What does this fold into?
Amino acid sequence: MNNILLVEDDPAIVRSLMEFLRNEGFDAAYADGQRRALDLLAGTRFDLVLIDVSLREGNGFSLCMAIKQLYNIPIIFLTAADDEYSVVTGLELGGDDYISKPFRPRELITRIKAVLRRAGKSQREIEIGNVCINLDRGVAYKKGEELLLSALEYRLLLLFFNNRGVALSRNRLLAELWDLAGDFVNDNTLTVYIKRLRDKIEDDPSNPVIIRTVRGIGYKAGD
It folds into this structure.
């Protein structure tokens, strides 16, 4: 799973973008300025850095130069400054791509995947038990056989796999599925989809080991 560092000091953007990246199958961390970003890079392996040019502490251009001097990590600039000078400056300093705010989340994911492919760091697979998800292809397999999942079933499975070991309440599942799929999912519908998913991924759906019920809370995938 690819690990992405977001360098952004707008809390609203951080909150929404971090959630989106994680739901798309990425590990993600964030820093609100240059010093914190360099501290994180020193202790953690990241595959790509998203940098806002305008930061309260330092700026994206100077941070890009510092990163490129120390690490071989691709960088995408995120900024409202889409004038030609800013674009050229960012790319000349070593930036691998440049996307202007406001951006479409799907476009950002496409750009991220393209940069990772060029850098030889494309996403691989996430796996629990004998079920794995190929994040590049957006498909799931059980024992090497492709699972026929609806779009909402795939999103639900990805949500569980991205939160391995975390007990997810039904309210959180409902909220995140609504945000991701744009479909109306009520409590009864969620029960139906979890049953369908278990029927497809569990060896014994009546005794699930991949998506387990946590009494009084909700569900948990994996350990």
The two ends are 18 Å apart (CA to CA). The mean pLDDT is 85. The longest helix spans residues 187-201. Residues 88 and 166 are 43 Å apart (CA to CA).
